[in-house]
């Protein structure tokens, strides 16, 4: 874990309102595992005050990593104003990433919107491990919003796309794409792992489908954060009853959780 | 230590701190969370998350929301309880070469006493900080602070059951902070710390709901600093026991505001979220300030505020 | 007015405002100061600088200092007194096509009554706002608000002497804001406005002196908004008379926090310094919010906060 | 008076820590008179909150004006980060400027440090009125800090320089330069106006010297400001007893005052 002030070595809008920021910080780039995140701050005054959490979306070159983010509020608006050559405050890598283990079996990655970010990193890592090419399913509101692993990270990986408005790929939610894949896996008796990131409602549906198909499922959750270090207890989500504790810290026990650890009936409490 | 380095040690009643900068309760976990970033023993002390007799789950999420130059929290004093604290957290704290303060909390006067009693004789705990001021729990909490009589009773009970220096932490949500301060002093407290958070609320206008599940939360961060400085000013004028300043401290200049006003040490909370190295930077800045002005001991700065009018 | 434009008028007790955004007392002078920038009649109303019977010089400088997301002021209720107000300021205000509220202040219960009496029957003044909450003067001021009995007596006295709707402005520097609110309601006030500033202090660490000549000042600006929203929430739950929300409002979203919580109008103060057109932008934003959500009347938003837990 | 968001058309460091910012806003450039000021804000969050007051240091070209400022704190640090092409919030022109009147007579302008800013504009205006070339006296801490009307505004005017450390021009305070000028004026029986801006102690001394020499004197004062419009009563300074009112608002009655309106024994209360 490092607290540093790296230089922005590239920064571009990859879809309307969505940016890819490249930060040169070898220490973080080398240590980070897919699913981990960084806390960023690019404000000079005390307002906004808190750092914002963002998944690491992949390694870029030898010594840099990427952050793929959508402008939704004041913090991300300030980020978007930073220029190449500026330095920003970075803390990371933080949290627990996806468990890829030494185990074999097939991976299905399912992302919704900018939730593809940690999955890009995961795909990059799996691709780097030889014949672990995952299936990559990604859903967006429309064609304009599409973020593909090739465009963003130059990964040699074709994504299956779903759009809500039907302007590209399958018309409907990304979970429509997941069902046939799970069916195939179930048929082949493969050990299948679904890794997902996106809005809570999507994750809940992914978790349910995976469970039904007997696949294991890991989800990357979001919540408002203050410290990112497990110290403030601000970022909790409701744990599933069998966890034995009422709440899980997204920054410490997560952000990636086994789907069955989460109380889905009360997930998403953080965001209206 | 370089010969030229100013002496940063401060006395806070019976306590002798290696420097005047402590990590505030609830913002530094049990100390270990920040270890990957820096050695917590560099601090003057650490105040651990509020501890109650039994474990507490805390409030449902959302528990935090950012506000202008601050944040609201309604953690609800989530903590692992005395038993697990002693088993799981204390051993590491005992090896830590700095002052360890345990922030305690009870639902009733009696429970405060029980927590204090459970920590009696325990090595590696240098002082108790008694939180009579948390606004995020229904029972007790702030009620103990808004009623000076109750403040005094909690203080007496803790003092009876404890063998450690007792710091009582006051709430700013009162008409006159001198009242609980004086009551607690009279009850025998060794020191006071102030302020805890100011009760606030944020509305999510899209959802037309409170942003926090608990509806209200405690406001902390730079936004509240002027209120904290004012209250420290009022209290140091009124009491003789030492005061620790808390509230919105983010830079050495901020810490100096409190020390000059008369606080003998400071606690840093929310600023550590915006910058996890804030405490160390404050320490550096304090040394630098003293050095550049030829001040040998930071204690020489404490309470040097002049308030007579010049013009 | 465009057919599609939402109806922004609001009722605040006996007052009918063309929209819910007023300029707060002490931050908008006597109204005319902003005239070179925009027509003050666009606002729902203006509350003029606190007026006392006799002219007051106010406190020596420095009177203001910036704080994180806010500022302290210790103007000390400097004003030209009733006589000059009526001669020099009123004629212009009388011609102004919006609600004019005169903020009044006295050193004693009797003086409040005298100011109210002096404004009795005067045309062009639509309401009085009684400031029982200013922390920047030695006598009276805040003392009237921290003691519910005194709050009630001031209110009764003003009501007796006045022929205008009476809004009483509360201080946040109290343990429980519902106490003065209920006392003032019982005394017959037509409406409440809250909050005034929170007492604070800044130290100039170079000079080792308070940054303000008056030592303490009143904290205003976005920093205090969560405290103001919380207090409005507490008060609207407790009283039946209408409440005007004040404190840290800088954007339409901020104003909506108060309206949704139950305030029937808002006053904008400090934000007007950061952006002199803030009030107009807030109005635009309110219209936009209503329009995009198919809300015909801004009154339909008032008090629509849901506080039952979802999770 | 205008509230606008003009573009920064030029921005450069003219001395260490001192910058000249050019703002293209014809309305202000045309209306402004020497001694008037603008309130600037270049922060996106709410911290710092308040606008900062700066004298207009001159017209630049047809439709722009300049602000010459020193970085002393957070607000000016943010200003210094702005780049050409950025827009910032500007309110102005504000306050009362120097009275140059139709009257003839000679002008002596005396500035201390960045206090030369409004005097540059005054000199520019006087030069534009034909044969009213003023004497321009300016004091700085050292050679490095020197700001000259030629360098900054391309004015055809030679300044007499004093430096505290003696690295350029006269070694000593700028008031040393003022005395001989006042003596000459007094000798010639000229109607002389001294216009000054700088630290309170310097202004007090200038006022005393001018009074002794029978010259009229105008000073530009500073104080912390919130509104800049006369509404908040935050920017007051102590008035001289004969003013009949205890305080003067710097933003409204000033920032330029006849020296005799100010209670010099209590001036500078604002700054430590
Ligand atoms: C572990 C983790 C990883 C994340 N990774 C990414 C990422 O790779 N790319 C990315 O674009 N975002 C990511 N996020 C979300 C990101 O942190 C928020 O979008 C960001 O903090 C918003 O900051 P803001 O100041 O712009 O918005 P605010 O002004 O704070 O909020 C604006 C609006 O956005 C909503 N909002 C704020 N935070 C979130 C959130 N976390 N999720 C949903 N809505 C939110 C608020 O409720 C509000 O309505 C991640 C969050 C977490 C916890
Ligand atoms: C009418 C008027 C015209 C001015 N014209 C100019 C100008 O042309 N060029 C220029 O550089 N400055 C000018 N100033 C001063 C300028 O406004 C301040 O330097 C600026 O507001 C400081 O902002 P900051 O946020 O950087 O400093 P802050 O963080 O607010 O303060 C930092 C330090 O500077 C001190 N300080 C703040 N304001 C002033 C001040 N007005 N005078 C002296 N010390 C101050 C503070 O006490 C503090 O010690 C003028 C001020 C006024 C009132
Ligand atoms: C997330 C969070 C949790 C806190 N938990 C506690 C606590 O358990 N006990 C306590 O006495 N104070 C607690 N506090 C209050 C802080 O210790 C401190 O008094 C307050 O935040 C003001 O200081 P700051 O502005 O530096 O944060 C908490 C504050 C925050 C922000
Ligand atoms: C400079 C200044 C002067 C004020 N003068 C008065 C006053 O005369 N009477 C009064 O009732 N409130 C006065 N107030 C308080 C404001 O009306 C308002 O209640 C407070 O500032 C909180 O709102 P804000 O955060 O929007 O500024 C003053 C506030 C400021 C900043
Ligand atoms: S963000 Fe602080 S505990 Fe997770
Ligand atoms: S700055 Fe507000 S009156 Fe001068």
Describe the protein in words.
The complex is a heterotetramer, with two copies of chain A (272 residues) and two copies of chain B (311 residues). Chain A has 272 residues and is an alpha/beta fold. Chain A has helices at residues 26-31, 74-81, 116-128, 149-153, 174-188, 200-213, and strands at 2-4, 7-15, 18-24, 37-41, 52-55, 58-60, 64-70, 89-94, 106-112, 135-140, 159-163, 170-171, 192-197, 216-220, 236-238, 247-249, 256-258. Chain A contains six helices and 17 strands. A seven-stranded mixed sheet of chain A has the order 12-11-10-9-13-14-17, with helices on both faces. In chain A, strands 1-8-4-5 form a four-stranded antiparallel sheet. The longest helix of chain A has 15 residues, at 174-188. Chain B is α/β, with parallel strands linked by helices. Chain B has a single domain (10-60, 76-201, 221-301), classed as Aldolase class I (TIM Barrel). In chain B, the strands form four sheets. In chain B, strands 3-4-7-8-9-10-15-16 form an eight-stranded parallel barrel, surrounded by seven helices. In chain B, helix 6 packs parallel to helix 7 and helix 7 packs across helix 9 (278-292). The longest helix of chain B is centred in the last third of the chain and has 15 residues, at 278-292. The termini of chain B are far apart. Classes of the chains: A alpha/beta (272), B alpha/beta (311). At the B-C interface, strand 11, strand 13, strand 14, helix 6 and helix 7 of B face strand 11, strand 13, strand 14, helix 6 and helix 7 of C.
């Amino acid at each position: 874990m490092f607290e540093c002030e790296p230089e922005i070595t590239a920064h571009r809008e990859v879809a309307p309102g969505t940016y890819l920021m490249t930060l040169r910080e070898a220490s973080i780039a080398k240590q980070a595992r897919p699913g981990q995140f960084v806390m960023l701050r690019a404000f000079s005054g005390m307002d906004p005050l808190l750092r914002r959490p963002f998944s690491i979306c992949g390694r870029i070159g030898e010594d840099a990593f990427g952050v793929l983010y959508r402008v939704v509020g004041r913090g991300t608006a300030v980020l978007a104003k930073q220029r190449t050559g500026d330095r920003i405050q970075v803390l990371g890598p933080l949290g627990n990433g996806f468990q890829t283990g030494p185990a074999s079996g097939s991976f299905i990655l399912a992302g919704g919107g900018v939730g593809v970010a940690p999955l890009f990193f995961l795909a990059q890592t799996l691709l780097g491990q030889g014949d672990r090419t995952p299936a990559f399913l990604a859903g967006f509101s429309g064609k304009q919003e599409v973020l593909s692993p090739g465009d963003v990270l130059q990964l040699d990986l074709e994504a299956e796309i779903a759009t809500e408005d039907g302007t590209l790929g399958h018309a409907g939610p990304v979970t429509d794409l997941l069902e046939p894949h799970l069916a195939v896996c179930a048929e082949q008796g493969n050990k299948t792992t679904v890794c997902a990131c996106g809005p809570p409602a999507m994750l809940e549906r992914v978790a349910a489908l995976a469970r039904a198909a007997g696949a294991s499922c890991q989800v990357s959750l979001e919540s408002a954060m203050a410290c990112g270090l497990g110290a403030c207890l601000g970022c909790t989500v409701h744990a599933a009853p069998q966890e034995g504790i009422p709440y899980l810290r997204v920054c410490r026990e997560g952000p990636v959780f086994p789907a069955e650890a989460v109380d889905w009936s009360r997930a998403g409490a953080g965001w209206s | 230590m370089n010969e030229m380095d100013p002496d940063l040690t401060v006395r806070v009643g019976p306590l002798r701190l290696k420097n005047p900068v402590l990590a505030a309760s609830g913002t530094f976990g049990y100390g270990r969370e920040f270890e990957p970033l820096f050695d917590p023993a560099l601090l003057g002390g650490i105040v651990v998350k509020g501890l109650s007799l039994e474990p507490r789950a805390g409030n449902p999420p959302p528990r935090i929301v950012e506000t202008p130059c601050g944040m609201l929290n309604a953690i609800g004093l989530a903590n692992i309880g005395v038993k697990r604290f002693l088993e799981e957290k204390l051993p590491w704290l005992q090896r830590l070469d700095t002052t360890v303060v345990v922030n305690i909390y009870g639902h009733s006067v009696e429970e405060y006493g029980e927590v204090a009693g459970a920590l009696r004789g325990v090595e590696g705990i240098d002082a108790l900080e008694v939180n009579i001021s948390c606004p995020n729990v229904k029972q007790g909490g702030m009620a103990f602070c808004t009623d000076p009589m109750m403040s005094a009773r909690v203080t007496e009970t803790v003092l009876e059951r404890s063998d450690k220096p007792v710091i009582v932490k006051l709430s700013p949500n009162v008409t006159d902070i001198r009242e609980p301060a004086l009551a607690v002093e009279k009850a025998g407290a060794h020191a006071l710390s102030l302020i805890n958070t100011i009760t606030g609320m944020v509305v999510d206008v899209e959802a037309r709901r409170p942003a926090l599940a608990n509806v209200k939360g405690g406001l902390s961060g730079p936004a509240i600093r002027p209120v904290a400085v004012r209250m420290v000013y009022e209290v140091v004028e009124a009491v003789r026991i030492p005061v620790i300043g808390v509230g919105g401290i983010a830079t050495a200049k901020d810490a100096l505001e409190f020390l000059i006003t008369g606080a003998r040490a400071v606690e840093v909370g929310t600023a550590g979220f915006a910058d996890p190295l804030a405490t160390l930077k404050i320490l550096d800045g304090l040394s630098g300030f003293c050095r550049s002005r030829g001040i040998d001991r930071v204690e020489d700065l404490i309470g040097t505020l002049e308030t007579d009018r010049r013009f």
